[in-house]
Amino acid sequence: MLCHPERSEGPAHFLAGSRVYRTFAALNMAKSVGVNLFFFISLLSAASFAQSTVHSSVPASRLAHIRHGINLSEWFAQVYDPKGYTKEHFENWTTASDIALIKSAGFDHVRLSVNPQPMMDAARRNNGDTEYFGYLDAAVKMILDAGLAVEIDMHPDSDFKTRLAKEDEFVERFADFWNMVAQHYASWDPERILFEILNEPEMRDSYRWYGVESKLAAAIRRGAPANTIIAAGARWDDDDDLVFLEPLPDRNVVYVFHFYEPHIFTHQGAGWGAYYWHWLKGLHYPSSPENADQIATLVPEARDRMQVIRYGQDHWDASRIEAEINQTADWARQRGVPLICNEFGVYRSFANAQDRAHWITDVRTSLERHAIGWAMWDYSGSFGVVTNRETKAKPDEVTLRALGLKMPAGQ
Fold it and tell me: What is the CA 150 to chain-centroid distance, rounded?
């Protein structure tokens, strides 16, 4: 999940103009950055492939399974317990009652974050991968048995992604790992198991990412000929990362973006990302100059205060959100590919509950207007729809209503 405020614009010339122009642009980039032959070929393919629409072959029945989802975080990824990824954690963090609650609330799929590094480490031990697959198999089976679809989302820590950005050999290792995982689940239910190549790649070089993603997608496809793949842009899965991307040479792909705009509202009070976010409390949505000016006084640095004041002046509301999401929808329509937004949400601790619900409603409504499937971040974490998992998990009715869902009976 997220969310660095840093932005670096990709070279627009690669997205515009003739196929010949894009080809020479790719060649010049390949020479200038010294990418290897594989990555250059990937770029060349992108330049040629982008000339026409893709005519996606993802079945409508499959897309119908990923309309209204929720993220299952901190189960097979982002495990902050000092004991780490243990049998006890896998069996108790998310249970059959949680999955039943998700189903009864009206969600149709879950996004299951999986950190690949512990699995790759386990494979080095005698029968270690068999043991790890046993835990993951049990989770996937529990989800499928409840009538839900599942996105298996490779969700590593940042250091793993740094290696992908620098080490070709590590890309090869990860591709082999992905092939093994895809082959393992290929015989299950391709209608309801989707493979997300990589969460938020954090790769500044968008051209290299296209090569890496192409390599990983090909490895998945060799292992699982029928399953749908989920592909992302280069950095943080933001909407501007998506619109820089050109489709892969595979028609059974859904393209993904995350939406937390504006981060200054959705991440107010957060202790990660931009440092000044932790000063922000009580910033309203929709934004207003008066409220933003007042909250800006809490921020010590003048440059950061300007960001808060700008939030108020930018008048973030439903129409502003629609203007952002409409650009991703246009990108998809022009290329003939389906979209999903499988992360969006608001950090609960410091945002006003009604403002949070208002923002979620506006984002969800815009996504549905464009027939874009969605998955909220997250089930029971700091952005969650469930607020008291330590006793009996109970969904927040205000959040469910904002998602267009209803409180399950008996809650």
Answer: 14
CA-to-CA distance for 65 and 109, rounded, in angstroms?
Answer: 7
Distance, CA of 405 to CA of 104 (rounded, Å): 10
The token pair that represents 59 in the structure block = 């079945």
HSE-CB of 125 using CA atoms within 13 angstroms? 11
Closest CA to 90 of 50, 111, 118, 70: 118
Instruction: For residues 70 and 104, give the distance between their C-alpha atoms in angstroms, rounded to a whole number.
Output: 13
* Entry pTM: 0.87
What are the C-alpha distances in Å from 384 to residues 186, 360, 396, 400? 31, 12, 9, 11
Give which of 329, 219, 250, 339 is closest to 46, Cα–Cα.
250
Residue 154 makes CB contacts below 8 A (sequence gap 6+) with 114, 116, 178, 196, 197, 198, 199
C-alpha–C-alpha distance, residues 130 and 115, integer Å: 16
Nearest one of 209, 194, 278 to 246, comparing CA atoms = 209
Of residues 294, 333, 334, 335, the one with CA closest to residue 311 = 294
Q: Express each pLDDT in 344-370 by its tens digit.
A: 999 999 999 999 999 999 999 999 999
- Write the pLDDT tens digit of every residue in 46-101: 444 444 466 799 999 999 999 999 999 999 999 988 888 999 999 999 999 999 99
State both tokens at 61.
């029945």
pLDDT at residue 31 tops 70: no
The torsion region of residue 127 among left (phi > 0), alpha (psi -120 to 50) and beta comes to: left
In single-letter form, the type of residue at position 90 comes to F
Give the tokens for residue 407: 């409180």
